[in-house]
Amino acid sequence: MAKTQVEVITSVERRRRWSSAEKERLVAASLEPGALVSALASEAGLHPSQLYKWRRQLCGRPGAAPGFAPVRIIDETAMPGLPAPVGVIEIELAGGTRLRITGAVDAATVSAAVGALAVKERRS
Fold this sequence. Notes:
- The protein has helices at 20-30, 37-44, 48-59, 107-123; strands spanning 88-92, 98-102.
- The chain is mostly helical.
- Helix 1 packs across helix 3.
- The N and C termini lie far apart (68 Å).
């Protein structure tokens, strides 16, 4: 008598295939103001981490590394007829720390403030 192997399947397969349109709809809903990713994921029958992964895939640029945006400082006399700029600088660091400077500030002050915040973020 030969032994035979028998496979018993007791449950329904849980893997679901999502179309691009379904993924885009869920990601768009998760980006709405006040939307809760965990609630949306639960309603759709998936784990919140899957929805976050789709958000990164659809909203992020693949292979793009965080970096600095180019900045150009314009002398207010270069544009006659325009009102003088208010003078607001807002800087948000990667950890979420935000620095807002209003009014006239010299470059050394801004540099010192950003340096102090960067050191604080590295320690956190």
